[in-house]
Specification:
homodimer; UDP-N-acetylmuramoyl-L-alanine:D-glutamate ligase; nine-stranded mixed sheet
Chain lengths: ~300, ~300
Protein backbone atom coordinates (compact mmCIF):
# COMPACT_ATOMS: atom_id res chain seq x y z
CA UNK A 1 0.00 0.00 0.00
CA UNK A 2 1.17 3.55 -0.66
CA UNK A 3 2.25 5.62 2.26
CA UNK A 4 1.91 9.39 2.32
CA UNK A 5 4.63 11.25 4.20
CA UNK A 6 4.64 14.89 5.14
CA UNK A 7 7.64 16.65 6.58
CA UNK A 8 10.61 18.78 5.69
CA UNK A 9 12.94 18.77 2.72
CA UNK A 10 16.14 20.63 3.47
CA UNK A 11 19.72 21.30 2.51
CA UNK A 12 22.14 20.51 5.31
CA UNK A 13 25.69 21.47 6.22
CA UNK A 14 27.00 18.70 8.44
CA UNK A 15 30.25 18.42 10.38
CA UNK A 16 31.18 15.21 12.19
CA UNK A 17 34.48 13.71 13.37
CA UNK A 18 34.52 11.86 10.03
CA UNK A 19 34.38 15.00 7.89
CA UNK A 20 32.14 17.67 6.49
CA UNK A 21 29.38 17.83 3.88
CA UNK A 22 27.77 20.97 2.49
CA UNK A 23 24.40 21.56 0.88
CA UNK A 24 23.44 17.93 0.99
CA UNK A 25 19.82 16.99 0.48
CA UNK A 26 18.20 16.25 3.81
CA UNK A 27 15.08 16.91 5.84
CA UNK A 28 12.80 14.49 7.64
CA UNK A 29 10.60 13.74 4.61
CA UNK A 30 13.64 12.98 2.45
CA UNK A 31 15.18 10.45 4.85
CA UNK A 32 11.79 8.95 5.61
CA UNK A 33 10.83 8.57 1.94
CA UNK A 34 14.11 7.07 0.82
CA UNK A 35 14.07 4.56 3.67
CA UNK A 36 10.41 3.63 3.13
CA UNK A 37 10.89 3.36 -0.65
CA UNK A 38 12.58 -0.04 -0.25
CA UNK A 39 9.33 -1.47 1.10
CA UNK A 40 6.43 0.33 -0.56
CA UNK A 41 5.35 3.22 -2.79
CA UNK A 42 5.87 6.57 -1.10
CA UNK A 43 4.15 9.90 -1.75
CA UNK A 44 5.62 13.08 -0.31
CA UNK A 45 4.03 16.35 0.73
CA UNK A 46 6.60 19.03 1.46
CA UNK A 47 7.76 22.44 0.30
CA UNK A 48 10.99 23.47 -1.39
CA UNK A 49 12.42 26.68 -2.84
CA UNK A 50 13.92 27.77 -6.16
CA UNK A 51 17.21 26.12 -5.26
CA UNK A 52 15.64 22.64 -5.36
CA UNK A 53 16.60 21.43 -8.81
CA UNK A 54 15.79 18.48 -11.03
CA UNK A 55 18.87 16.68 -9.68
CA UNK A 56 17.40 16.79 -6.17
CA UNK A 57 14.00 15.67 -7.36
CA UNK A 58 15.77 12.88 -9.19
CA UNK A 59 17.25 11.51 -5.94
CA UNK A 60 13.73 10.72 -4.79
CA UNK A 61 12.29 9.78 -8.19
CA UNK A 62 15.11 7.31 -8.79
CA UNK A 63 13.84 5.43 -5.76
CA UNK A 64 10.30 5.50 -7.13
CA UNK A 65 9.12 8.17 -4.69
CA UNK A 66 6.14 10.17 -5.96
CA UNK A 67 7.18 13.83 -5.67
CA UNK A 68 3.98 15.36 -7.05
CA UNK A 69 3.18 16.69 -3.58
CA UNK A 70 6.46 18.60 -3.23
CA UNK A 71 5.41 22.19 -3.67
CA UNK A 72 7.76 24.77 -5.21
CA UNK A 73 7.59 28.12 -3.46
CA UNK A 74 9.45 31.33 -4.21
CA UNK A 75 12.51 31.64 -2.02
CA UNK A 76 15.06 29.27 -0.61
CA UNK A 77 14.64 25.75 0.70
CA UNK A 78 14.91 25.10 4.44
CA UNK A 79 18.59 25.05 5.40
CA UNK A 80 20.18 23.57 8.48
CA UNK A 81 23.76 23.40 9.64
CA UNK A 82 25.03 21.44 12.58
CA UNK A 83 27.91 19.51 14.03
CA UNK A 84 28.34 16.37 16.02
CA UNK A 85 31.73 16.72 17.59
CA UNK A 86 31.54 15.94 21.28
CA UNK A 87 28.56 13.63 21.11
CA UNK A 88 27.33 11.68 18.12
CA UNK A 89 23.90 11.39 19.71
CA UNK A 90 23.17 15.09 19.71
CA UNK A 91 23.82 17.76 17.12
CA UNK A 92 24.96 21.25 17.98
CA UNK A 93 23.00 23.45 15.59
CA UNK A 94 25.05 26.09 13.79
CA UNK A 95 22.11 27.66 11.97
CA UNK A 96 18.48 27.03 11.07
CA UNK A 97 17.03 28.97 8.14
CA UNK A 98 13.41 27.94 7.78
CA UNK A 99 12.99 29.89 4.53
CA UNK A 100 9.97 28.55 2.55
CA UNK A 101 9.32 25.98 5.30
CA UNK A 102 8.30 28.74 7.70
CA UNK A 103 4.96 29.26 5.95
CA UNK A 104 4.47 25.62 4.96
CA UNK A 105 0.80 24.75 4.52
CA UNK A 106 0.54 21.15 3.36
CA UNK A 107 -1.54 20.70 0.21
CA UNK A 108 -2.61 17.16 -0.51
CA UNK A 109 -2.83 16.46 -4.25
CA UNK A 110 -6.11 14.83 -5.32
CA UNK A 111 -4.07 11.81 -6.46
CA UNK A 112 -2.98 11.22 -2.86
CA UNK A 113 -6.44 11.23 -1.30
CA UNK A 114 -6.80 7.46 -1.30
CA UNK A 115 -3.72 7.00 0.91
CA UNK A 116 -4.26 4.36 3.59
CA UNK A 117 -1.00 4.87 5.44
CA UNK A 118 0.15 8.25 6.63
CA UNK A 119 3.28 9.49 8.33
CA UNK A 120 3.12 12.88 9.99
CA UNK A 121 6.70 14.10 10.14
CA UNK A 122 7.89 16.57 12.69
CA UNK A 123 5.98 19.78 11.80
CA UNK A 124 3.55 21.94 13.80
CA UNK A 125 0.99 19.62 15.42
CA UNK A 126 -1.91 21.73 14.11
CA UNK A 127 -0.71 21.08 10.56
CA UNK A 128 -0.30 17.40 11.34
CA UNK A 129 -3.89 17.23 12.56
CA UNK A 130 -5.22 19.12 9.54
CA UNK A 131 -3.54 16.68 7.15
CA UNK A 132 -4.91 13.68 9.00
CA UNK A 133 -8.43 15.07 9.03
CA UNK A 134 -8.31 15.78 5.31
CA UNK A 135 -7.67 12.13 4.50
CA UNK A 136 -10.66 9.90 5.08
CA UNK A 137 -9.25 6.56 3.88
CA UNK A 138 -6.30 6.42 6.25
CA UNK A 139 -6.22 3.26 8.31
CA UNK A 140 -2.91 3.80 10.10
CA UNK A 141 -1.19 7.05 11.05
CA UNK A 142 2.33 7.28 12.36
CA UNK A 143 3.62 10.49 13.83
CA UNK A 144 6.71 12.22 15.10
CA UNK A 145 7.14 15.33 17.24
CA UNK A 146 9.85 17.08 19.22
CA UNK A 147 10.57 19.04 22.41
CA UNK A 148 9.87 22.32 20.62
CA UNK A 149 6.20 21.37 20.06
CA UNK A 150 5.82 19.53 23.37
CA UNK A 151 6.68 22.78 25.11
CA UNK A 152 5.44 25.35 22.63
CA UNK A 153 2.26 23.81 21.21
CA UNK A 154 1.25 21.34 23.86
CA UNK A 155 -2.50 21.77 23.50
CA UNK A 156 -2.40 21.32 19.72
CA UNK A 157 -0.10 18.34 20.14
CA UNK A 158 -2.55 16.74 22.55
CA UNK A 159 -5.28 17.08 19.93
CA UNK A 160 -3.03 15.55 17.28
CA UNK A 161 -2.08 12.61 19.50
CA UNK A 162 -5.71 11.51 19.46
CA UNK A 163 -5.39 11.07 15.70
CA UNK A 164 -2.09 9.20 15.71
CA UNK A 165 -2.04 5.40 15.94
CA UNK A 166 1.69 4.99 16.44
CA UNK A 167 3.84 7.77 17.82
CA UNK A 168 7.62 7.59 17.31
CA UNK A 169 9.74 9.73 19.64
CA UNK A 170 12.94 9.42 21.66
CA UNK A 171 13.54 8.88 25.39
CA UNK A 172 13.84 12.55 26.26
CA UNK A 173 10.72 13.51 24.31
CA UNK A 174 8.68 10.73 25.91
CA UNK A 175 9.74 11.80 29.39
CA UNK A 176 9.01 15.45 28.65
CA UNK A 177 5.64 14.73 27.06
CA UNK A 178 4.54 12.57 30.02
CA UNK A 179 6.31 14.69 32.63
CA UNK A 180 7.62 11.43 34.08
CA UNK A 181 11.20 10.17 34.39
CA UNK A 182 10.48 6.45 34.53
CA UNK A 183 10.26 5.22 30.96
CA UNK A 184 7.54 2.53 31.23
CA UNK A 185 5.40 4.89 33.30
CA UNK A 186 6.03 7.68 30.79
CA UNK A 187 4.99 5.28 28.02
CA UNK A 188 1.73 4.47 29.77
CA UNK A 189 0.94 8.14 30.17
CA UNK A 190 1.60 8.84 26.49
CA UNK A 191 -0.56 5.87 25.46
CA UNK A 192 -3.36 7.34 27.57
CA UNK A 193 -3.17 10.47 25.38
CA UNK A 194 -4.37 8.59 22.32
CA UNK A 195 -1.84 6.45 20.44
CA UNK A 196 -2.36 2.69 20.41
CA UNK A 197 1.37 2.15 20.33
CA UNK A 198 4.41 4.21 21.23
CA UNK A 199 7.86 3.65 19.78
CA UNK A 200 10.62 5.09 21.93
CA UNK A 201 13.93 5.39 20.11
CA UNK A 202 17.00 4.91 22.31
CA UNK A 203 19.67 5.89 19.76
CA UNK A 204 22.58 3.44 19.94
CA UNK A 205 20.58 1.19 22.29
CA UNK A 206 17.77 0.48 19.83
CA UNK A 207 14.07 1.09 20.38
CA UNK A 208 11.17 -0.14 22.49
CA UNK A 209 7.54 -0.28 21.44
CA UNK A 210 4.81 -0.14 24.07
CA UNK A 211 1.32 -1.31 23.12
CA UNK A 212 -1.99 -0.32 24.60
CA UNK A 213 -3.72 -3.42 25.87
CA UNK A 214 -5.51 -5.13 23.03
CA UNK A 215 -4.15 -2.80 20.36
CA UNK A 216 -3.11 -4.63 17.16
CA UNK A 217 -3.97 -7.94 18.78
CA UNK A 218 -2.68 -9.27 22.06
CA UNK A 219 0.70 -10.03 23.53
CA UNK A 220 3.31 -8.57 25.81
CA UNK A 221 3.08 -4.90 26.69
CA UNK A 222 6.52 -4.09 25.30
CA UNK A 223 8.96 -5.22 22.64
CA UNK A 224 12.57 -4.20 22.12
CA UNK A 225 14.66 -4.13 18.97
CA UNK A 226 18.39 -3.49 19.01
CA UNK A 227 20.53 -1.02 17.21
CA UNK A 228 23.59 -2.43 15.54
CA UNK A 229 26.82 -1.55 17.33
CA UNK A 230 28.54 0.44 14.58
CA UNK A 231 32.30 0.95 14.56
CA UNK A 232 32.19 4.08 12.51
CA UNK A 233 29.22 6.39 12.57
CA UNK A 234 30.04 8.82 9.76
CA UNK A 235 26.99 11.04 10.15
CA UNK A 236 24.03 10.46 12.49
CA UNK A 237 21.79 12.98 10.67
CA UNK A 238 18.51 11.41 9.61
CA UNK A 239 18.90 8.19 11.59
CA UNK A 240 15.59 8.71 13.40
CA UNK A 241 13.70 9.63 10.20
CA UNK A 242 15.22 6.62 8.42
CA UNK A 243 14.10 4.48 11.35
CA UNK A 244 10.56 5.82 10.92
CA UNK A 245 10.74 5.21 7.16
CA UNK A 246 11.81 1.60 7.55
CA UNK A 247 9.25 1.04 10.29
CA UNK A 248 6.26 2.59 8.53
CA UNK A 249 7.32 1.41 5.07
CA UNK A 250 7.46 -2.19 6.20
CA UNK A 251 4.08 -1.96 7.93
CA UNK A 252 2.49 -0.42 4.82
CA UNK A 253 3.89 -3.25 2.69
CA UNK A 254 2.10 -5.96 4.66
CA UNK A 255 -1.37 -7.40 4.09
CA UNK A 256 -2.40 -7.01 7.70
CA UNK A 257 -1.19 -4.84 10.58
CA UNK A 258 -0.71 -7.03 13.62
CA UNK A 259 1.78 -7.23 16.46
CA UNK A 260 4.15 -9.59 14.70
CA UNK A 261 4.27 -7.26 11.69
CA UNK A 262 4.89 -4.29 13.96
CA UNK A 263 7.70 -6.10 15.79
CA UNK A 264 9.42 -6.95 12.53
CA UNK A 265 8.89 -3.33 11.46
CA UNK A 266 10.77 -2.23 14.57
CA UNK A 267 13.71 -4.33 13.41
CA UNK A 268 13.49 -2.87 9.89
CA UNK A 269 13.48 0.61 11.41
CA UNK A 270 16.74 -0.13 13.17
CA UNK A 271 18.17 -1.64 10.00
CA UNK A 272 17.45 1.49 7.94
CA UNK A 273 18.82 3.77 10.63
CA UNK A 274 21.99 1.71 10.78
CA UNK A 275 22.58 2.11 7.04
CA UNK A 276 21.98 5.85 7.05
CA UNK A 277 24.71 6.63 9.58
CA UNK A 278 27.36 4.76 7.58
CA UNK A 279 27.72 7.64 5.10
CA UNK A 280 27.03 11.36 4.98
CA UNK A 281 23.51 12.58 4.34
CA UNK A 282 21.29 10.27 2.31
CA UNK A 283 24.16 8.72 0.36
CA UNK A 284 23.81 5.21 1.73
CA UNK A 285 20.01 5.31 1.48
CA UNK A 286 20.19 6.06 -2.23
CA UNK A 287 22.10 2.96 -3.22
CA UNK A 288 20.80 0.06 -1.13
CA UNK A 289 19.25 -3.14 -2.33
CA UNK A 290 16.48 -5.07 -0.65
CA UNK A 291 18.93 -7.96 -0.42
CA UNK A 292 21.35 -5.88 1.65
CA UNK A 293 18.46 -4.77 3.85
CA UNK A 294 17.26 -8.30 4.49
CA UNK A 295 20.79 -9.50 5.16
CA UNK A 296 21.16 -6.85 7.84
CA UNK A 297 17.75 -7.77 9.23
CA UNK A 298 19.23 -11.23 9.78
CA UNK A 299 22.26 -9.67 11.49
CA UNK A 300 19.89 -7.83 13.84
CA UNK A 301 18.06 -11.06 14.52
CA UNK A 302 21.30 -12.93 15.29
CA UNK A 303 22.34 -10.05 17.51
CA UNK A 304 19.34 -10.63 19.80
CA UNK A 305 17.86 -14.09 19.29
CA UNK A 306 18.67 -17.17 21.27
CA UNK A 307 18.58 -20.49 19.46
CA UNK B 1 30.09 -26.65 39.08
CA UNK B 2 30.89 -24.52 42.10
CA UNK B 3 31.78 -20.91 41.53
CA UNK B 4 34.09 -19.01 43.81
CA UNK B 5 33.27 -15.31 44.25
CA UNK B 6 35.45 -12.72 45.89
CA UNK B 7 34.26 -9.21 46.65
CA UNK B 8 32.79 -7.04 49.35
CA UNK B 9 30.23 -7.72 52.03
CA UNK B 10 28.78 -4.52 53.42
CA UNK B 11 26.01 -2.86 55.34
CA UNK B 12 24.22 -0.19 53.34
CA UNK B 13 22.06 2.81 54.07
CA UNK B 14 19.99 3.44 50.97
CA UNK B 15 17.62 6.28 50.09
CA UNK B 16 15.54 6.18 46.91
CA UNK B 17 12.33 7.90 45.82
CA UNK B 18 10.54 4.77 47.10
CA UNK B 19 11.87 5.03 50.65
CA UNK B 20 14.81 4.37 52.88
CA UNK B 21 16.57 1.31 54.29
CA UNK B 22 19.27 1.27 56.98
CA UNK B 23 21.99 -1.25 57.76
CA UNK B 24 20.84 -3.69 55.15
CA UNK B 25 23.16 -6.46 54.09
CA UNK B 26 24.84 -5.57 50.80
CA UNK B 27 28.17 -5.56 49.02
CA UNK B 28 29.15 -6.97 45.65
CA UNK B 29 29.86 -10.50 46.89
CA UNK B 30 26.50 -10.68 48.66
CA UNK B 31 24.42 -9.69 45.64
CA UNK B 32 26.56 -11.84 43.35
CA UNK B 33 26.32 -14.92 45.56
CA UNK B 34 22.59 -14.71 46.16
CA UNK B 35 21.90 -14.26 42.45
CA UNK B 36 24.26 -17.08 41.43
CA UNK B 37 22.89 -19.40 44.13
CA UNK B 38 19.78 -20.09 42.03
CA UNK B 39 21.97 -21.74 39.40
CA UNK B 40 24.91 -23.40 41.12
CA UNK B 41 26.85 -23.82 44.37
CA UNK B 42 28.61 -20.64 45.41
CA UNK B 43 31.66 -20.16 47.62
CA UNK B 44 32.47 -16.71 48.94
CA UNK B 45 35.75 -15.11 49.93
CA UNK B 46 35.26 -11.80 51.71
CA UNK B 47 35.90 -10.07 55.01
CA UNK B 48 33.43 -8.85 57.63
CA UNK B 49 33.68 -7.29 61.09
CA UNK B 50 32.31 -8.02 64.55
CA UNK B 51 28.95 -6.58 63.58
CA UNK B 52 28.33 -9.37 61.06
CA UNK B 53 26.14 -11.75 63.01
CA UNK B 54 24.73 -15.23 62.56
CA UNK B 55 21.56 -13.69 61.13
CA UNK B 56 23.57 -12.16 58.28
CA UNK B 57 25.47 -15.37 57.66
CA UNK B 58 22.13 -17.11 57.59
CA UNK B 59 20.91 -14.98 54.68
CA UNK B 60 23.63 -16.54 52.54
CA UNK B 61 23.53 -20.01 54.10
CA UNK B 62 19.77 -20.24 53.58
CA UNK B 63 20.49 -19.99 49.86
CA UNK B 64 23.10 -22.73 50.12
CA UNK B 65 26.02 -20.33 49.79
CA UNK B 66 29.24 -21.65 51.33
CA UNK B 67 30.44 -18.91 53.70
CA UNK B 68 33.53 -20.67 54.98
CA UNK B 69 35.68 -18.13 53.12
CA UNK B 70 34.11 -15.12 54.84
CA UNK B 71 36.81 -14.02 57.22
CA UNK B 72 35.92 -12.34 60.53
CA UNK B 73 38.25 -9.48 61.35
CA UNK B 74 38.33 -7.23 64.40
CA UNK B 75 36.46 -4.00 63.70
CA UNK B 76 33.40 -3.02 61.72
CA UNK B 77 32.14 -4.33 58.39
CA UNK B 78 32.41 -2.12 55.30
CA UNK B 79 29.59 0.45 55.39
CA UNK B 80 28.17 2.48 52.55
CA UNK B 81 25.43 5.06 52.40
CA UNK B 82 23.98 6.56 49.26
CA UNK B 83 20.93 7.99 47.61
CA UNK B 84 19.31 7.77 44.22
CA UNK B 85 17.10 10.79 44.05
CA UNK B 86 17.62 12.64 40.79
CA UNK B 87 18.79 9.67 38.78
CA UNK B 88 18.09 6.01 39.43
CA UNK B 89 21.08 5.05 37.30
CA UNK B 90 23.65 6.71 39.52
CA UNK B 91 24.00 6.83 43.30
CA UNK B 92 25.12 9.89 45.17
CA UNK B 93 27.38 8.51 47.89
CA UNK B 94 26.73 9.87 51.38
CA UNK B 95 29.56 7.99 53.07
CA UNK B 96 32.00 5.13 52.51
CA UNK B 97 33.58 3.54 55.57
CA UNK B 98 35.91 0.80 54.36
CA UNK B 99 36.58 -0.48 57.90
CA UNK B 100 37.87 -4.09 57.79
CA UNK B 101 37.62 -4.07 53.98
CA UNK B 102 40.47 -1.56 53.76
CA UNK B 103 43.08 -4.18 54.62
CA UNK B 104 41.30 -7.07 52.91
CA UNK B 105 43.73 -9.81 51.84
CA UNK B 106 41.75 -12.65 50.33
CA UNK B 107 42.52 -16.03 51.88
CA UNK B 108 41.33 -19.00 49.88
CA UNK B 109 40.30 -21.92 52.12
CA UNK B 110 41.85 -25.24 51.11
CA UNK B 111 38.34 -26.55 50.46
CA UNK B 112 37.92 -23.94 47.70
CA UNK B 113 41.09 -24.79 45.78
CA UNK B 114 39.37 -27.04 43.28
CA UNK B 115 37.08 -24.22 42.06
CA UNK B 116 36.72 -24.22 38.28
CA UNK B 117 34.73 -21.01 37.98
CA UNK B 118 35.87 -17.78 39.53
CA UNK B 119 34.36 -14.32 39.79
CA UNK B 120 36.68 -11.50 40.73
CA UNK B 121 34.45 -8.82 42.19
CA UNK B 122 35.37 -5.18 42.20
CA UNK B 123 38.45 -5.04 44.48
CA UNK B 124 42.02 -3.88 43.87
CA UNK B 125 43.24 -5.47 40.61
CA UNK B 126 46.43 -6.70 42.27
CA UNK B 127 44.33 -8.70 44.74
CA UNK B 128 42.19 -10.00 41.88
CA UNK B 129 45.30 -11.22 40.06
CA UNK B 130 46.72 -12.84 43.20
CA UNK B 131 43.54 -14.82 43.75
CA UNK B 132 43.43 -15.99 40.17
CA UNK B 133 47.06 -17.09 40.24
CA UNK B 134 46.52 -19.03 43.44
CA UNK B 135 43.88 -21.23 41.85
CA UNK B 136 45.22 -23.67 39.32
CA UNK B 137 42.02 -25.51 38.37
CA UNK B 138 40.05 -22.49 37.20
CA UNK B 139 38.74 -22.83 33.68
CA UNK B 140 36.75 -19.61 33.45
CA UNK B 141 37.29 -16.31 35.24
CA UNK B 142 34.83 -13.45 35.20
CA UNK B 143 35.83 -10.06 36.48
CA UNK B 144 34.52 -6.64 37.37
CA UNK B 145 36.31 -3.36 37.89
CA UNK B 146 35.48 0.33 38.19
CA UNK B 147 36.66 3.85 37.29
CA UNK B 148 38.58 4.11 40.54
CA UNK B 149 40.94 1.27 39.50
CA UNK B 150 41.00 2.22 35.82
CA UNK B 151 42.41 5.57 36.84
CA UNK B 152 44.25 4.71 40.05
CA UNK B 153 45.72 1.26 39.37
CA UNK B 154 45.81 1.08 35.61
CA UNK B 155 49.02 -0.92 35.32
CA UNK B 156 47.88 -3.56 37.81
CA UNK B 157 44.49 -3.68 36.10
CA UNK B 158 46.17 -4.32 32.75
CA UNK B 159 47.97 -7.29 34.28
CA UNK B 160 44.73 -8.62 35.74
CA UNK B 161 42.89 -8.29 32.44
CA UNK B 162 45.24 -10.85 30.93
CA UNK B 163 43.93 -13.36 33.48
CA UNK B 164 40.22 -12.59 33.00
CA UNK B 165 38.20 -14.51 30.41
CA UNK B 166 35.05 -12.42 30.60
CA UNK B 167 35.08 -8.85 31.87
CA UNK B 168 31.78 -7.26 32.95
CA UNK B 169 31.73 -3.45 33.12
CA UNK B 170 29.40 -0.61 32.17
CA UNK B 171 29.46 1.81 29.23
CA UNK B 172 31.36 4.54 31.02
CA UNK B 173 33.97 2.14 32.36
CA UNK B 174 34.51 0.56 28.94
CA UNK B 175 34.98 3.96 27.33
CA UNK B 176 37.36 5.08 30.06
CA UNK B 177 39.38 1.87 29.99
CA UNK B 178 39.78 2.03 26.21
CA UNK B 179 40.05 5.80 26.05
CA UNK B 180 37.57 5.64 23.19
CA UNK B 181 34.04 7.06 22.96
CA UNK B 182 32.66 4.74 20.28
CA UNK B 183 31.39 1.63 22.05
CA UNK B 184 32.23 -1.11 19.53
CA UNK B 185 35.70 0.38 19.05
CA UNK B 186 36.12 0.62 22.82
CA UNK B 187 35.08 -3.03 23.07
CA UNK B 188 37.69 -4.10 20.54
CA UNK B 189 40.39 -2.24 22.42
CA UNK B 190 39.40 -3.88 25.71
CA UNK B 191 39.35 -7.32 24.07
CA UNK B 192 42.88 -6.67 22.85
CA UNK B 193 43.92 -6.25 26.51
CA UNK B 194 43.21 -9.90 27.26
CA UNK B 195 39.58 -10.93 27.85
CA UNK B 196 38.00 -13.27 25.33
CA UNK B 197 34.64 -11.64 25.87
CA UNK B 198 33.46 -8.30 27.21
CA UNK B 199 30.04 -7.71 28.68
CA UNK B 200 29.03 -4.06 28.64
CA UNK B 201 26.09 -3.30 30.93
CA UNK B 202 23.81 -0.51 29.68
CA UNK B 203 21.60 -0.18 32.78
CA UNK B 204 17.96 0.16 31.72
CA UNK B 205 18.90 -0.65 28.10
CA UNK B 206 20.28 -4.10 28.82
CA UNK B 207 23.73 -5.40 27.98
CA UNK B 208 25.90 -6.26 25.00
CA UNK B 209 28.55 -8.94 24.87
CA UNK B 210 31.43 -8.63 22.41
CA UNK B 211 33.45 -11.76 21.58
CA UNK B 212 37.00 -12.02 20.40
CA UNK B 213 37.04 -13.82 17.10
CA UNK B 214 36.96 -17.55 17.67
CA UNK B 215 36.49 -17.28 21.43
CA UNK B 216 33.96 -19.78 22.83
CA UNK B 217 33.26 -21.02 19.32
CA UNK B 218 32.22 -18.93 16.34
CA UNK B 219 29.38 -16.59 15.53
CA UNK B 220 28.54 -12.94 15.38
CA UNK B 221 30.88 -10.48 17.05
CA UNK B 222 28.20 -9.09 19.36
CA UNK B 223 25.01 -10.13 21.12
CA UNK B 224 22.49 -7.96 22.97
CA UNK B 225 20.15 -8.83 25.78
CA UNK B 226 17.46 -6.46 26.99
CA UNK B 227 16.62 -5.13 30.39
CA UNK B 228 13.00 -5.36 31.37
CA UNK B 229 11.22 -2.00 31.36
CA UNK B 230 10.28 -1.77 35.05
CA UNK B 231 7.51 0.51 36.23
CA UNK B 232 8.82 0.86 39.71
CA UNK B 233 12.48 0.58 40.50
CA UNK B 234 12.50 0.55 44.30
CA UNK B 235 16.28 0.36 44.77
CA UNK B 236 18.89 -0.04 42.03
CA UNK B 237 21.66 -1.03 44.48
CA UNK B 238 23.26 -4.33 43.52
CA UNK B 239 21.66 -4.60 40.07
CA UNK B 240 25.04 -4.91 38.34
CA UNK B 241 26.36 -7.48 40.84
CA UNK B 242 23.12 -9.46 40.56
CA UNK B 243 23.52 -9.35 36.79
CA UNK B 244 27.02 -10.78 37.16
CA UNK B 245 25.72 -13.45 39.56
CA UNK B 246 23.00 -14.60 37.19
CA UNK B 247 25.40 -14.50 34.25
CA UNK B 248 28.29 -16.39 35.87
CA UNK B 249 26.02 -18.69 37.87
CA UNK B 250 24.21 -19.86 34.77
CA UNK B 251 27.48 -20.44 32.90
CA UNK B 252 28.91 -22.45 35.81
CA UNK B 253 25.78 -24.60 35.87
CA UNK B 254 26.23 -25.77 32.28
CA UNK B 255 28.13 -28.79 30.99
CA UNK B 256 29.98 -26.80 28.37
CA UNK B 257 30.81 -23.12 27.94
CA UNK B 258 29.94 -22.09 24.39
CA UNK B 259 28.41 -19.04 22.75
CA UNK B 260 24.84 -20.21 23.06
CA UNK B 261 25.32 -20.81 26.79
CA UNK B 262 26.91 -17.37 27.17
CA UNK B 263 24.04 -15.69 25.29
CA UNK B 264 21.47 -17.34 27.53
CA UNK B 265 23.60 -16.33 30.50
CA UNK B 266 23.35 -12.72 29.35
CA UNK B 267 19.57 -13.04 29.52
CA UNK B 268 19.75 -14.62 33.00
CA UNK B 269 21.97 -11.75 34.11
CA UNK B 270 19.30 -9.28 33.08
CA UNK B 271 16.63 -11.39 34.76
CA UNK B 272 18.43 -11.39 38.11
CA UNK B 273 19.13 -7.65 37.91
CA UNK B 274 15.45 -7.01 37.19
CA UNK B 275 14.38 -8.89 40.32
CA UNK B 276 16.88 -7.15 42.57
CA UNK B 277 15.64 -3.64 41.84
CA UNK B 278 12.03 -4.52 42.69
CA UNK B 279 12.73 -4.34 46.45
CA UNK B 280 15.26 -2.78 48.79
CA UNK B 281 18.65 -4.42 49.23
CA UNK B 282 18.77 -8.17 48.73
CA UNK B 283 15.17 -8.73 49.84
CA UNK B 284 13.88 -9.96 46.48
CA UNK B 285 16.97 -12.09 45.88
CA UNK B 286 16.40 -13.97 49.10
CA UNK B 287 12.96 -15.27 48.25
CA UNK B 288 12.93 -16.20 44.58
CA UNK B 289 12.20 -19.57 43.05
CA UNK B 290 13.81 -21.03 39.97
CA UNK B 291 10.31 -21.13 38.49
CA UNK B 292 9.93 -17.36 38.84
CA UNK B 293 13.35 -16.90 37.29
CA UNK B 294 12.58 -19.06 34.29
CA UNK B 295 9.20 -17.39 33.83
CA UNK B 296 10.93 -14.02 33.65
CA UNK B 297 13.51 -15.45 31.27
CA UNK B 298 10.56 -16.19 28.98
CA UNK B 299 9.32 -12.62 29.39
CA UNK B 300 12.76 -11.38 28.32
CA UNK B 301 12.66 -13.69 25.34
CA UNK B 302 9.20 -12.50 24.29
CA UNK B 303 10.38 -8.94 24.74
CA UNK B 304 13.02 -9.38 22.03
CA UNK B 305 12.28 -12.40 19.86
CA UNK B 306 10.39 -12.39 16.60
CA UNK B 307 8.29 -15.42 15.79
Amino acid sequence: MSILAIGSVAFDNITTPAGRAENVLGGSATYFSLAASYFTKVRVVAVVGDDFGAEHDHVLKKRGVDTLGIERAAGKTFRWGGQYLENLNEAKTDFTELNVFEKFQPHIPAEYRDSQFLFLGNIHPALQAAVRLELSDVKLTGGDTMNFWIQGANQELRETLRLVNILLINDGEAKMLANERNLPRAANKVLAMGPQALVIKHGEYGATIFFREGAFGFGSHAFRAPALPIDEVKDPTGAGDSFAGGFMGYIASQEEVNREVIKRALFYGGVMGSFTVERFGTERLQSLTRGEIDARFQVFRELTHLE
